[in-house]
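Sanity check record (used in CI):
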Amino acid sequence: MILPRLFLLCLSFCATTGAAQAANALDPAFGDGGLRHYGFQPVSGGNNDQGVVACASANGTLTAAGIASNSRRVVTIRLHANGGYDPAFGVDGKASFDLPGTFSGYIPGLCQPDGNLVLVRTLTGQDGEQALQIVRVLKQSGQPDPSFGSNGAADIDLDSWIPGLGQRETPLSVNALPNGDLAIGGDAQLADGSSRGFIALLRADGSVRTVQALANLRSANVYAAVQAPDGRLWAFGRNGRISGVYRATLNRDSLAWEGVLEYAAPPGYVYALGPARPVDADTVVMPAATVSQNPGAAPQVIVFRANSITALPLPGPPAGYLASGDLGLTVLPGRRVLLSSLASTSGSNSRSAIHFATARIGYDTDGDRLETQFGDGGTQLVSFRAPDPACATVVPLHSFLRLTLWDGLPVLAGGVLQNCQGGTDALDYLIGRLRPDYLFGDGMD
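Expected output for Delta-60 repeat protein:
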């Protein structure tokens, strides 16, 4: 069911022109002023529902999938352009299937080129040993794809491929490659307590092509893997040795190491990162935040070009501070990129709002710039309030997992608490849509 109406919270100085633009960046034709949450019937008492990924589908609809009922099932919904359920899909616009096993951690998601949806999760055994599970959901039915893995799920125990691992196996990214392969990236714990980034290549049917740890990089992870212009594979992520980022070049078939570019964080800082996205064949961008011992973080876009890595600073929230987790980015027309992250408003919890900032990526470094016409000098905060009058001064907890495009419009998938009572066991799916002609004042979108 769709729960009661949610409200957009203006978090900057509402008398200013910039604040008015910020509020208008959300698409008023969708949901309640651009945002809507969706909750589902609890199963076995579980009412924690987390949206993972939203994908454009037929006839102008949107199909979104996530983990529901405290991780007991996958629920897929199909929405009309106004945010209402499409009753022609599933039962009253919803479809679900059980998802056995205990999982934890971040859940990467992907819209495949054919429109099917992919979720990647960590399975945890009773002894604490972990493995990966990749689930493919059919866009037309919301059910697991029987042609993928075993009844729609492919399990990978990294211990079978990488010697000397400890228990933890964490997926951080999933990318579609031109030949139909899926590239799963993340980090895994070694027996000595350190970690290594890894890449797992899966064929279109879910069978494993190969798995490789990035042994040349200590304390690293993988936030994206894309095919390079010369046919090799590029891997992107955090390099703990220099508290910075890297782009590794790998053999496309064996994932053997062939070279690396590195970029260090400013002295005294480390990078928090999110999944990277290609702008063109030679240029990849990654959302980032510089983090120090002080509260808050500063957003950046890391730009990887053929022979260089640069960082473009972006403005933080006009009020409160940026949290260092749940970073996302999508590429808009005209080489613009929209970055999103969680933020805190003054005096509230560290996940009380979603922060957006926008930049234009040039064909060289000189062309990279902040889009100051967006929001309030290049930044915007949005948030929800529960309809209960008792919640009038309380901003609920938010989560965010992925930005994608829906008929050219940016759309986010995540979660939000359905009330202001605290805790994290009452999340609903959160879907929001922005309009490019509201994003920018030049009228050229």
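The CA atoms of residues 222 and 237 lie 4 Å apart. If this sentence no longer matches the regenerated tokens, the check is flagged for review.
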